[in-house]
Write a structure and sequence with these properties.
heterodimer, A: about 675 residues, alpha+beta, Phenylalanyl-tRNA Synthetase, Chain B, domain 1, Phenylalanyl-tRNA Synthetase, Chain B, domain 3, six-stranded mixed beta sheet, B: about 375 residues, BirA Bifunctional Protein, domain 2, seven-stranded mixed beta sheet, about 40% helix, elongated
Chain lengths: ~675, ~375
């Protein structure tokens, strides 16, 4: 709301400098958005909250200023001179929809001279952002900015049968509004009609055909009250938010129309001559009942924490237009002014008092603690995951969850559908992501295409999908690797990211949890490259998926280097207990290692070698490690060599050569028998 | 030959100079004296001593200027030129020598232990936690210190939890300030335990516009006293720019009890802001309006850039606007079957990215979601 300080001063003199006034109004709930100089003097821009339509006017703000500084507020009592002829004889008003139009007041003025407005009026309107049109329209706008109540001037001679009917629009009915747009109406729109057709959208904008023109002589001035929700819906439907609709939709003062109309008339007579017919045509089918609220000192204290002196309470309420009468020693009966429809409860009055007493005057006290703080159920699990991943050099990403459907489909699991938005901002953000993999692929591409080629990223977020008509959001952990794990330096060779670096990260993420033994199994997920993709499973529970991004997807996302990604299901992980460290005696006797160089058929895995060794149940066996792996060269095409290192250790004694030899022999025999392995020289 | 340095305390006019050549000669002598001293020093400390003696504020240069340069004489132009040449000579000799001594020192470092001490160390690189996560954790930690537990809830919500139960009915003007993204799915697609008995199963689901629905869910499950903070993602139908995003993070909080007043509300908020921005921070409570709080306040803190004196960051007000808060509107208690006459409380909600931007001077909201590692890695701890 734009407030001209010289105009404001016509109703109240704050006695303070503009900057101080702006700061005080901000504290009282009218936040200063700007203070500037205009042709009409200093202009204060205030942000008015949606509950206070009464502050969308100079007089409304003046009332607050008067209460803030305990300065008198000048009353506005328009006294336009009337001629003998009756307004009721010149026009008729009917309200067919009294629930949507609680009141319709009209004045009739004759023989007005439509002409440009005087300079003072033009300057004020223009400083407040309203274009000057002619003296009649300008006066209605001026009174809008002064009192906050919209009025509308019709050219009386264009109204069929000089009749006003307030009614619901008929389906498909048309009106061309003042902005020149032809609009088709719906039955929930409220219109002002004459005997034949709609002449205005109620509370929003007038019709073009009844516009005040240079030929206009006689005017019907409308000053009405329209229901907020109806006005708001219509303005939204029609994409037409006006100064009038912005006020009606917040609930205006139903007692204001006659005063606003008479104020207009006073100015019409001054600026356009003519005569005002006597009387107001005032159709008022839905009277407003003045609410009475009980205000208790005890409740003020209970809410605000400080008692306010009774005299202060009474002064502030009176200054804001409330009528407070003592009910007993500690309470009042308070009648609400008609312009404050936002105040209907005791708490509303308490807020008024706090606001004008000053929030800054209340002391600050820490609230007492009441119960122990409860962490989120998975807080420790999440912290353990973050520690594990950050220790491995993974940076955390936080990604948008609305994504492009064409990308999302590539990561959709069988049996799932995308969760679509009804009113997305754009096609690119019109579905919720079905997987975290998509987001990290995009993040890798963003970075690689900006020269950042060596990346380790994790994200803890959600994935969203619809399965059999059911919407579900689930927590996921996503990992991504690309480029080099380590760049070449004087100390070390470079080390590229590969599947096993990803597998190691997955294992590190799972390590903190008490899970059944988990394993990696081949899978056929299309987003990963065949031969380098797996699920990770613990018993019958699938914990996640991992693999090398398929070359098709890499091309789609313009990612020109190998990328390795994993997604783990956090709902499953968070359901598991966190492992607590367990003490075991530190071995007192040395361990012994033996290397076995094996020639194996290609399908035989390291895992089956290890299982075969472990299943021998050798009591001193502590570790089986793969040390080297080799294919090609002189070896047959369907074979490979594997160097396996086995560690033996006893807690009771140093192992003898004989014991090691015997165990080694059993290992070799078992590998030969079970896996067809050959020991190489 | 008398030591040229002993001539410095005398005015040049007292030295009996007869020609410009003699001017040059005495400066040549000065240069030779400087060279002798420089030749005697072999370490950086000694070099610094020479610099202070010849070029320091109270050193020989002062005598030179006062006694030789300033006095009026017919040789003044010659003295001026000779002085400037000498000054340049001293400066560049010192600089060259310093460079030389440093290089010597470095080569000694290497020779001493047999390894090149200047090669970088070998260490694993830690990953960086996202600035949003760090800020969110910091906010929750501060509130934990004054008794607030952390709760979370779903991002996809019903109209009931996101609006209605927060005292924002259909067609309420406050809905305009939170433009909402709706899903193309009715509420009945949500599992019943999340949808709750009061949500209309036929209304469209939405992406929550704030984390306040979790406050309602908490009060449905828990009787007072309540002290919770709710971190999480929220969504608005805003076009992205440097200060807007259709997705961002909030931490909202709620306290309900039998003895909480506006004073405790102020105490908790001031404590939080001082912990987050520093002990000197002052807080401003301006009256405001939110449908779910009353009295409502907009909180601002003294601008950290200008300490409240006014600058371009705070638009010359001295204040940075931070978030909305207030006493819980009693109407909200009605939705969760709390007894409004006996209870009171306060609620607040802040944008996590906004707090991070203010604290670290980040100037573009989009940086938080681009995940450029050159941004992410700046916040490694």
């Amino acid at each position: 709301m734009k407030i001209l300080l010289q105009w404001l001063k016509e109703y109240v003199d704050s006695g303070v400098a503009p900057e101080k006034l702006a700061a005080d109004l901000t504290l009282a709930g009218m936040a200063m958005e700007g203070l500037s100089e205009t042709e009409a003097g200093p202009l204060l821009e205030l942000e008015i909250t949606t509950n206070r339509p009464d502050l969308m006017s100079h007089y409304g703000v003046a009332r607050e200023v008067s209460a803030l500084y305990a300065k008198p507020l000048k009353p506005i009592e328009p006294q336009p001179v009337e001629v003998a002829d009756l307004a009721a004889g010149a026009a008729k008003v009917e309200i067919e929809a009294p629930d949507l139009c609680h009141r319709y007041a009209a004045l009739v003025l004759c023989n007005l001279k439509v002409q440009p407005s005087p300079e003072w009026l033009r300057k004020r309107l223009e400083a407040c952002g309203i274009a000057s049109i002619n003296n009649i329209v300008d006066v209605t706008n001026y009174v809008l900015l002064e009192l906050g109540h919209p009025t509308h001037a019709f050219d009386l001679d264009t109204l069929a049968e000089k009749r006003i009917v307030v009614r619901a629009a008929k389906a498909g009915e048309k009106i061309t509004t003042l902005d020149g747009v032809a609009r088709t109406l719906k039955p929930h729109h409220l219109v002002i009609a004459d005997a034949k057709r709609p002449v205005a959208l109620a509370g929003i904008l007038g019709g073009a055909a009844m516009e005040i023109s240079l030929r206009t002589k006689n005017v019907l001035l409308e000053s009405a009250w329209f229901e907020p929700v109806t006005t708001r819906r219509a303005a939204k439907d029609l994409g037409l938010r006006t100064e009038a609709s912005a006020r009606f939709e917040r609930g205006l003062d139903v007692e204001a129309p006659v005063r606003a109309a008479r104020r207009c008339a006073e100015l019409f007579l001054e600026l356009a001559g003519g005569e005002l017919l006597s009387g107001v045509i005032d159709v008022y089918p839905r009277r407003w009942d003045v609410p009475e609220i009980t205000l208790r000192q005890g409740e003020i204290l209970r809410t605000l924490g400080e008692a306010l002196p009774a005299a202060l309470v009474e002064r502030l309420l009176a200054a804001l237009g409330f009528v407070a009468a003592r009910a007993d020693q500690d309470s009042w009966r308070v009648a609400t002014p008609s312009w404050r429809r936002d105040v209907s409860r005791e708490i509303d009055l308490i807020e008024e008092l706090a606001r004008h007493y000053g929030y800054d005057k209340f002391p600050a006290r820490l609230p007492p603690a009441r119960q122990p703080v409860v962490l989120r159920p998975h807080a420790q699990a999440e912290a353990a995951l973050r520690r594990a991943l950050e220790a491995q050099g993974f940076d955390e990403a936080v990604c948008f969850t609305p994504v492009h459907p064409k990308d999302a489909e590539k990561f959709l699991a069988p049996g799932e559908e995308l969760a679509r938005l009804r009113n997305p901002i754009s096609e690119e953000t019109s579905v919720l992501r079905p997987s975290g993999l998509l987001s990290l692929v995009e993040t890798l591409a963003w970075n690689v295409n900006r020269g950042q080629r060596h990346l380790r990223l994790y994200e803890i977020g959600k994935a969203y999908a619809v399965r059999e008509g059911r919407f579900q959001e689930r927590r996921v952990l996503t990992l991504a690797l690309t480029g080099l794990l380590r760049e070449k330096s004087v100390h070390e060779d470079e080390q590229p990211a590969d599947f096993f670096a990803l597998k190691g990260a997955v294992e590190a993420a799972l390590q903190p949890f008490a899970l059944p033994p988990f394993g990696f199994r081949p899978c056929d997920l299309a987003c990963f490259q065949s031969g380098e993709r797996a699920t990770v499973e613990a018993g019958s529970q699938r914990l996640g998926v991992l693999g090398r991004l398929s070359s098709t997807l890499a091309t789609d996302f313009k990612l020109r280097q190998a990328a390795f990604l994993a997604e783990l299901d956090l709902e499953g992980l968070y359901a598991a207990r966190l492992l607590a460290p367990e003490y075991r005696p530190v071995p007192r006797f040395p361990g012994v290692t033996r290397d076995f160089s094996l020639l194996l058929d290609l399908p035989v895995s390291f895992g089956s070698v290890r299982r075969t060794i472990e299943s021998l149940g050798l009591p001193e066996l502590v570790a089986v490690a793969a040390v080297d792996r080799f294919r090609g060269g002189a070896l047959p095409a369907d074979k490979y060599s594997l160097l396996v290192r086995v560690t033996f250790q006893s807690h009771e004694r140093t192992l003898t050569d004989e014991e090691i030899r015997s165990a080694s022999g059993r290992i070799v025999r078992a590998l030969e028998k079970e896996l067809g392995a050959k020991l190489r020289a | 030959m008398t030591d040229i340095l002993q001539k410095l305390p005398f005015k040049i006019t007292q030295l009996g100079i007869q020609s410009p050549e003699e001017v040059e000669n005495i400066f040549a002598e000065l240069r030779a004296a400087f060279d002798r001293e420089l030749g005697e020093k072999h370490d950086i400390e000694g070099l610094e001593g020479i610099r202070i003696r010849w070029r320091g504020r109270k050193g020989l240069d002062r005598l030179l200027r006062d006694n030789w340069l300033k006095p009026e004489s017919k040789f003044k132009p010659a003295v001026g030129k000779a002085y400037n040449d000498f000054k340049d000579y001293v400066e560049s000799s010192l600089a060259l020598r310093l460079q030389h001594l440093r290089a010597q020192e470095e080569s000694r470092e290497m020779a001493a232990e047999g390894v090149d001490l200047t090669l970088p160390g070998l260490a694993a690189r830690r990953g960086a936690r996202h600035l949003v996560t760090q800020t969110l954790e910091e906010i929750c930690d501060i509130f934990a210190r004054i008794g607030f537990s952390v709760v979370e809830g779903p991002e996809v919500e019903t109209d009931y939890y996101n609006f209605e139960a927060l005292n924002i009915p259909q067609h309420h003007p406050a809905r305009d300030t939170m433009d909402t993204l709706y899903l193309d799915l009715p509420a009945r697609a949500l599992p019943e335990e999340i949808r709750g008995p009061r949500s209309d199963p036929n209304q469209f689901l939405l992406l929550r516009t704030h984390t306040s629905p979790v406050q309602i869910r908490t009060m449905e499950k828990q009787k007072p006293p309540v002290r919770v903070v709710v971190p999480g993602k929220v969504y608005r139908r805003d076009n992205p720019d440097a200060t807007h995003s259709f997705m961002f993070h909030q931490v909202e909080g709620l306290a309900v009890d039998r003895d909480l007043t506006f004073c405790e509300f102020k105490g908790a908020m001031e404590y939080f802001l001082r912990e987050f921005f520093g002990p000197e921070t002052k807080t401003r409570f301006a009256a405001s309006y939110f449908p779910f709080t009353e009295p409502s306040a907009d909180l601002a803190a003294t601008c950290g850039v200008c300490q409240g004196s006014g600058c371009s960051v705070c638009k010359h007000t001295g204040w940075i606007e931070l978030f909305g808060a207030g006493m819980v509107d009693p109407a909200v208690y009605g939705f969760v079957d709390y007894e409004p006459g006996e209870l009171s409380g306060f609620a607040f909600g802040m944008g996590v990215e906004r707090f991070a931007m203010i604290k670290y001077g980040v100037d573009d909201l989009q940086l938080f979601f681009q995940n450029d590692v050159r941004f992410l890695q700046q916040f490694r701890r």
